[in-house]
Amino acid sequence: MATDILDTLEATIRARRSADPSTSYVAKLTHKGRAKIAQKLGEEAVEAAIAAVQDDRAGLTGEAADLIFHLLVLLADMGLTLDDVRAELARREGVSGIDEKASRPT
Ligand SMILES: N=c1c2ncn([C@@H]3O[C@H](COP(=O)(O)OP(=O)(O)OP(=O)(O)O)[C@@H](O)[C@H]3O)c2ncn1[C@@H]1O[C@H](COP(=O)(O)O)[C@@H](O)[C@H]1O
């Protein structure tokens, strides 16, 4: 079975968190603390939004990769996994967008 790159990256990030910060970006960022990781995530989100507004498809692809990478670093720092996010998305798939009770005639 093909391995998903996000699963591979998640495992790499988990393994690199405790590496030498001088040789690992993940370790360096983790060492700086959660607020710094969150700040980087926000910056990458803004850069992705700017690329989209500028109709820069290659730029958005790169920024999306940066954004997802930093999101995975933040999830790992919070002790959360992609499976937690998958479970939440699956739960939402089962939720109707229509409030049936509210739309039912009285
Ligand atoms: N996917 C990535 C990845 N995407 C982006 N980045 C880094 O994210 C940083 C974002 O760039 P910026 O210019 O915004 O930040 P910066 O100036 O380097 O850092 P700051 O001083 O702002 O904190 C760059 O240094 C990129 O190298 C990544 N660094 C690592 N990975 C993956 O993570 C794995 C583990 O990396 P190490 O921890 O370095 O071994 C690697 O094998 C890669 O697969």
TrEMBL record:
> Which key words are in the record?
Amino-acid biosynthesis, ATP-binding, Cytoplasm, Histidine biosynthesis, Hydrolase, Nucleotide-binding
* Keyword match Amino-acid biosynthesis: yes
Q: Which GO terms describe its molecular function?
A: ATP binding; phosphoribosyl-ATP diphosphatase activity
Cellular component, GO annotation: cytoplasm
Question: What InterPro entries does the entry give?
Answer: HisE (IPR008179), PRib-ATP_PPHydrolase-like (IPR021130)
What is its pathway? Answer: Amino-acid biosynthesis; L-histidine biosynthesis; L-histidine from 5-phospho-alpha-D-ribose 1-diphosphate: step 2/9
What EC numbers are recorded for this enzyme?
A: 3.6.1.31
Q: Name one GO biological process term.
A: L-histidine biosynthetic process
Listed CDD domains: NTP-PPase_HisIE_like
Compartments (UniProt record):
Cytoplasm
The protein's annotated catalytic reaction(s) are: 1-(5-phospho-beta-D-ribosyl)-ATP + H2O = 1-(5-phospho-beta-D-ribosyl)-5'-AMP + diphosphate + H(+)
The text of the family note is:
Belongs to the PRA-PH family.
The record's HAMAP family line, in alphabetical order, gives: HisE (MF_01020)
Q: What is this protein called?
A: Phosphoribosyl-ATP pyrophosphatase
